[in-house]
Amino acid sequence: xxxxxxxxxxxxxxxxxxxxxxxxxxxxVTVLERAAALTPVGAGIGLAPNAQRALDVIGxxxxxxxxxxxxxxxGMRAPDGxxxxxxxxxxxxxRFGGPLVLLHRATLVExxxxxxxxxxxxxxxxxxxxxxxxxxxxxxVRTPDGEIEAELVVGADGIHSTVRRTLFPDHPGPRYSGFTxxxxxxxxxxxxxAPHETWGRGRLWGTQPLKDGRxxxxxxxxxxxxxxxxxxxxxxxxxxxxxxxxxxPEILAAVAPDAVLRHDVHHMPDPLPAFHHGRVALLGxxxxxxxxxxxxxxxxxxxxxxxxxxxxxxxxxxxxALAAYTADRLPRTTxxxxxxxxxxxxxxxxxxxxxxxxxxLITAVSRFGPGLVLRGFDGIADWRPPLADERPRVS
Length: 395
Description:
This protein has helices spanning 13-24, 49-57, 61-65, 89-96, 105-114, 162-167, 233-241, 248-254, 285-288, 297-312, 318-347, 352-366, 370-374, and strands spanning 5-9, 28-32, 44-47, 73-77, 83-88, 101-104, 121-122, 128-131, 139-143, 146-150, 152-155, 175-187, 196-199, 203-209, 214-222, 261-267, 276-277, 280-282. The strands form four sheets. A seven-stranded mixed β-sheet has the order 5-4-13-14-15-12-16, sandwiched between helices. A six-stranded mixed β-sheet has the order 7-2-1-11-18-17. A three-stranded antiparallel β-sheet has the order 8-9-10. Strand 13 and strand 14 form a beta hairpin. 34% of the residues lie in helices and 24% in strands. By secondary structure, it is of the alpha/beta class. Helix 1 runs parallel beside helix 5 (105-114).
């Protein structure tokens, strides 16, 4: 039997997951990554039970669960240290069927690349779609070394995707959300703390443990697009968060100025008309960039990848297989993009009366137990991947 060929453009979490899923289904896969190397960049990524179940499909779910570090209580706090809401790892696992796993993004990339044969991932290899193909002809990908024909092309090239612009040139693309983020990974402070996310006036801070003993901390604040600190980003974090509760000051004191990552947050509030065209499919931020307020960006890319491989492996014509993929993924991710945007607006309220009402409501709801706080992830974290014997949804 002739082996089908797939080309994945982009070696991020979604692209690598798609490559592993297609490889396990017998496809000849090539991953083309523009960067010169898969260097250990980035910070933490949280994988909820929905992404873990997707990784189960490709045999990697248990490896990720073994990295879970959150074992006790945690919750939401105010800048002065007051607890607005409490929850626990047990409550989350009981509700959604698994733990929340926080790991360094580089660790996840290593797990995924280790599941691929040597030579599948080509770095320093920018690529564009020269022809999306159709049921009667293959897609064509153009690289500096020549053109590659493929039965399937996966556009996993991120929020500023060139593949998306090629397929849907009239779409407005991503927009600035109105806030920026900072991320750091440091050794744990001497004094213990409970994992938390703290909501202030137009600002947010989160501190979470990693399995290897380090701490992942992240922050958000309203800011003009493209703004930068006049001195350095650690100093900016001191100005914004230096008087917040423990362990925020200790973490800021331990951070080197050049160890702070800052990125403006863009998202795609306008959904694409489809996640495919011809033999080319989009996934992850290329298809549905979302705000990080639900922690679902990487999770949804992983979901995309296993669902795409599921439909690509069913012997359907490309037009039907990829239409089924769009039908599965577009409504779900559109709803999550919109929910993340609503959560972002709530998180970054800045008027004192609105913040007081928000905090009072969170505190009141939390008195009924952690289940009500976790309810916001119903329909997200409890997702399950399609079964291998499911029939196509698109005729």
